[in-house]
């Protein structure tokens, strides 16, 4: 769970362990919105096994908004819609747990949630206890339902649910979704496991909805509609905040939603992994094309995401050209892996990208004097370094990201 140390009134310190690597799973929202059902979760759990997602490390099945009835029960409890979940949430949690997977649910730090179902403001303890009793493993906690709810700052409303989850004694992953309001990278690490750093993504590689702004510190207005490239752009300010136990969440992925080319989907996945975003699939995994399954289950990219160091890549302005090429790099420390470099062509024409390794911040320190090899992950081919210590990537296509992993020999 999260990283702070609770000090009980008796003075007993209770340390809570961190999730060491970004969480991996699937959520209903991007594709199904309010149409969430027991059978959808069950068929997804099946596909997690048959299509290789579970083996690749995806383990959370997350029910987003739409699972509830419109009002609380007479005794105040939130209740699952009996048409959508005929056997109830506890039975579904059992089914999911028997497959070695985990179940997540959704609520909101306002009076209402985003779909006008009952939010948890003022009901934090009752709701957290209900989730624990059902066997829930993960809570996504949203920020809709204004009224007096939004006269209290997010940090305060989101902290209340953190205490309530902690009080249940069950290990429930706590995923904040307050869209980057009031800069959660400065405070959310105190009491959550991950926090959304922006308004919502939408299924587009490069085109943004109206009201979207491109930096982390400029907040979106209205419903966001952030493209993949803009979400990556916002991370220039935030990648340095990434650390185990407090992951900035770039939102659910749009891979497999028929909105991008294969190269664009590879770029999307490469950056979510190297920037240490949670990897939450937002597509229909039962019907998804095999090319998208292959991207989402690429073991080399997942190894970058789940690397033991938990440090995100940083933008390297000296090697990048605005609106044409961006190069990012950062250290790794799992097995023999020591460093990763991403080189993206986001211009209009096929291009060559030259990377003088002396200019890659942190690379020589990460490699030390050890001999090393370099592999480009998507082509699964070794890459050579010239005598002048430069890597020349030729013919990088529009939308393509080359991912270079440096490993000790
Ligand atoms: C949800 O179900 C309704 C009713 O079948 C349908 O009209 C709507 O398009 C569905 N929405 C999504 C996002 O699947
Ligand atoms: C799957 O691939 C086919 C053929 O390339 C394409 O027409 C279809 O739109 C794709 N489906 C999705 C969900 O991406
Ligand atoms: C890409 O094309 C657009 C539209 O033609 C143009 O405005 C832009 O300057 C081009 N970008 C680059 C990097 O060439």
TrEMBL record:
Domain of life: Eukaryota
Residue ranges annotated for the Alpha galactosidase C-terminal domain, each copy included: 323-397
This protein's record includes keyword Ubl conjugation: no
Stretch forming the signal peptide: 1-15
Keywords: Disulfide bond, Glycosidase, Hydrolase, Signal
Catalysed reactions, as listed in the record: Hydrolysis of terminal, non-reducing alpha-D-galactose residues in alpha-D-galactosides, including galactose oligosaccharides, galactomannans and galactolipids
E.C. number: 3.2.1.22
PANTHER family: ALPHA-GALACTOSIDASE, ALPHA-GALACTOSIDASE/ALPHA-N-ACETYLGALACTOSAMINIDASE
Stated family: Belongs to the glycosyl hydrolase 27 family.
Descriptive protein name: Alpha-galactosidase
Lineage of source species: Eukaryota, Fungi, Dikarya, Ascomycota, Pezizomycotina
């Amino acid at each position: 769970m999260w990283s702070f140390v609770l000090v009980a009134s008796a003075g007993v310190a209770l340390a809570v362990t961190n999730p060491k690597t970004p969480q991996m799973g699937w959520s209903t929202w991007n594709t199904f919105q309010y149409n969430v059902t027991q059978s959808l979760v069950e068929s997804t759990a099946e596909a997690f096994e048959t299509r290789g997602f579970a083996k690749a490390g995806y383990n959370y099945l997350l029910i987003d908004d739409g699972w509830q009835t419109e009002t609380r029960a007479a005794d105040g409890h939130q209740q699952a819609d009996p048409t959508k979940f005929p056997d109830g949430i506890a039975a579904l949690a059992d089914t999911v747990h028997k497959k070695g997977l985990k179940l997540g649910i959704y609520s909101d730090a306002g009076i209402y949630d985003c779909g006008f179902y009952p939010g948890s403001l003022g009901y934090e303890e009752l709701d957290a206890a209900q989730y624990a009793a059902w066997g829930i493993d993960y809570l996504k906690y949203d920020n809709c339902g204004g009224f007096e709810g939004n006269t209290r700052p997010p940090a305060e409303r989101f902290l209340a649910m953190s205490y309530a989850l902690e009080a249940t004694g069950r290990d429930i992953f706590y995923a904040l979704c307050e869209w980057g309001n009031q800069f959660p990278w400065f405070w959310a690490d105190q009491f959550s496991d991950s926090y959304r750093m922006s308004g919502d993504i939408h299924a587009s590689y490069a085109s943004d909805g109206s009201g979207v702004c491109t930096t982390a510190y400029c907040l979106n207005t209205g419903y966001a509609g952030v493209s993949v490239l803009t979400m990556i752009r916002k991370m220039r300010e935030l990648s340095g905040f990434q650390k185990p136990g407090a992951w900035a969440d770039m939102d659910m992925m749009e891979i497999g939603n028929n909105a991008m080319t294969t190269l664009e989907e590879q770029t999307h996945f490469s950056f979510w992994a190297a920037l240490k975003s949670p990897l939450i699939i937002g597509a229909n995994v039962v019907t998804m094309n095999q090319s998208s399954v292959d991207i989402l289950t690429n073991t080399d990219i997942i190894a970058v995401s789940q690397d033991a160091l938990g440090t995100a890549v940083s933008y390297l302005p000296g090697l990048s050209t605005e609106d044409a090429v961006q190069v990012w790099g950062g250290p790794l420390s799992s097995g023999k892996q020591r460093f990763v470099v991403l080189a993206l062509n986001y211009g209009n024409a096929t291009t060559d990208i030259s990377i003088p390794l002396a200019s890659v911040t942190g690379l020589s320190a990460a490699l030390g004097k050890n001999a090393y090899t370099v592999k480009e992950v998507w082509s699964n081919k070794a890459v050579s370094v010239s005598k002048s210590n430069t890597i020349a990537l030729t013919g990088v296509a529009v939308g393509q990201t080359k991912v270079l992993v440096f490993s000790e020999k």
